[in-house]
């Protein structure tokens, strides 16, 4: 998802860790002394999680039990709870772009949204609605230091300026950092270079430039043209000003393509590419907080605040009535759920996480991280 071919380009810059290794290294020094007073803070694109779960069960699953998509989300939450990390789930907001991959975006939140938030809260995780796209909000929060990393499969997060990305495969994570992408000789992509990859190779906002693959774009990025475009888009006031800049900039692209031996691509390069609106959608997305204007202190403090620990009683209640985890009979009060067998099922899923988090010795009271 995200920018076509980008994961393939940046693979050499990845550093592989186990989940536990990454989290424990954040908390403790090699000699066992405490390194940080807070757990590793991860920001997650909730909309992507919901989309993946719904995509997995597009076809009939009548014999698989109640609320299969929600149950899959629950198991993913339980897996994440068993790692020593504080988690912030970001949901797409009302100002997200109306078009994605050339198709109109459904503006109504997925049916899973409310239930997802209920389960996340029961696990002690935090939720937040973005102003627009979740990936852009996550990038801003990463830059502000609210979260230590973004956990995503969508490479757009890098284009928006995320400093650190975890690309997860359940048992391990591939860690990408802004410094790593720029310093790895076989990658050498700055934020401007990432923007160029998104525009030319195609992404959520545009299909990209025809007959221009990621290899050609990667070479172009080494000439700094992406950084020039990023600077112009950051400093210009509107689309008209950016359009004025794009004239000579496109001429420079033509010259570079000719020198690279891509004469056909140079000759057919569209005069109206890239679209100023698409460039600004990447460079100036709708977000709640920015480094220049972090927003009301109270709102930022709410995002920095550690939530209390897991609410096992509430979690058991949700599992019983959303998944049918009971021995039959009419609904019973929450305090009677233990006799239904639900807590027994939860034991194998979350008690490991309870022990791990207690061993980390991090207070689960309400605190503001400073």
Automatic annotation (TrEMBL):
Matching Pfam families: XPG_I (PF00867)
Superkingdom of origin: Eukaryota
GO BP: DNA repair
Record-linked InterPro entries: 5-3_exonuclease_C_sf, PIN-like_dom_sf, XPG-I_dom, XPG/Rad2
A GO molecular-function descriptor: 5'-flap endonuclease activity
Residue ranges constituting the XPG-I domain according to the UniProt record: 121-187
CDD domains: PIN_YEN1 (cd09870)
PANTHER family: ENDONUCLEASE, PUTATIVE (AFU_ORTHOLOGUE AFUA_3G13260)-RELATED (PTHR11081:SF75), FLAP ENDONUCLEASE FAMILY MEMBER (PTHR11081)
UniProt name for this protein: XPG-I domain-containing protein
Organism: Pisolithus tinctorius Marx 270
Organism placement in taxonomy: Eukaryota, Fungi, Dikarya, Basidiomycota, Agaricomycotina
């Amino acid at each position: 998802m995200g920018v076509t071919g980008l994961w393939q380009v940046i693979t050499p810059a990845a550093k592989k860790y186990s989940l536990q290794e990454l989290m424990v290294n954040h908390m403790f020094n090699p000699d066992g002394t405490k390194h940080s007073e807070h757990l590793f803070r991860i920001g997650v694109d909730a909309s992507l999680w919901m989309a993946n779960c719904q995509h997995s069960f597009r076809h009939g699953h009548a014999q698989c039990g109640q609320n299969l998509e929600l149950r899959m989300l629950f198991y993913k939450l339980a897996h994440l709870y068993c790692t020593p990390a504080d988690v912030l789930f970001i949901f797409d907001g009302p100002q997200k772009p109306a078009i994605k991959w050339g198709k109109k975006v459904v503006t109504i939140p997925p049916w899973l949204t409310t239930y997802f938030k209920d389960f996340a809260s029961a696990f002690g995780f935090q939720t937040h609605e973005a102003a627009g796209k979740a990936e852009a909000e996550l990038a801003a929060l990463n830059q502000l230091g609210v979260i230590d990393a973004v956990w995503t499969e969508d490479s757009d997060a890098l284009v928006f300026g995320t400093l650190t990305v975890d690309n997860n495969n359940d048992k391990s994570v591939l860690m990408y950092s802004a410094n790593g992408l720029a310093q790895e000789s076989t990658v050498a992509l700055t934020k401007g270079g990432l923007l160029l990859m998104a525009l030319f190779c195609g992404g959520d906002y545009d299909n990209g430039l025809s007959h221009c693959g990621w290899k050609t774009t990667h070479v172009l990025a080494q000439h700094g043209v992406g950084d020039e475009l990023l600077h112009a888009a950051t400093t210009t006031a509107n689309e008209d000003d950016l359009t004025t800049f794009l004239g000579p900039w496109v001429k420079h692209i033509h010259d570079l393509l000719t020198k690279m031996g891509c004469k056909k691509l140079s000759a057919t390069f569209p005069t109206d590419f890239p679209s100023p609106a698409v460039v600004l959608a990447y460079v100036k997305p709708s977000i709640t907080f920015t480094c220049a204007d972090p927003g009301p202190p109270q709102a930022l403090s709410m995002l920095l605040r550690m939530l209390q620990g897991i609410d096992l009683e509430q979690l058991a209640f949700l599992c019983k009535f959303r998944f049918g985890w009971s021995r039959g009979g009419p609904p019973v009060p929450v305090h009677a759920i233990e006799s239904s067998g639900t807590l027994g099922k939860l034991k194998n899923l979350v008690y490991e996480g309870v022990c791990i988090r207690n061993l980390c010795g991090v207070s689960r009271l309400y605190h503001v991280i400073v």
